[in-house]
Amino acid sequence: MRMTKKDVHQRFVEKLSAELEEISAAVRHSISMATDEAHRAESKYDTFSLESSYLARGQSQRVEELRFALDRLQALSVKELTRESVIQHGSLVRLESAAGNVRTLYFCPGGGGEQVAVDGVEVCIVTAASPLGKAVLGKRLGATFEIKIGRALQTFRIAGVE
Description:
The protein has 2 domains: 5-75; 92-161, Roll (Chitinase A, domain 3).
């Protein structure tokens, strides 16, 4: 079976939804640990409640990031593109490096860096704010571009667009 953009989109929605549920439960647990009377500090060296509150704050920030990414992903139109279409949010793009390595990217306004495997293919969300997103958005199938990764300048060709 061939991977479709709809499959990729759905897999990212499922992954972010599951992660949001998991982190939300962890936040609730951390908050209860921070506020539970049984964990009240018994001395100035007992910092369990304080550490739990810091953990809850960090987890709450991750919840907000996930909500933002999930909202943007769910609002994204999964429409079919033609061979002449420019790469835009919602595009599924296959890049080929000069060395022949292939990367599959899904362009979305949120969730940059999230990854899923669909039919054995690793797909990564890329946002317009990332250097790679800036280099690719607006280009068409067959275009080549260079981007600095680390200290090396690498050349890629857009080998597929959906």
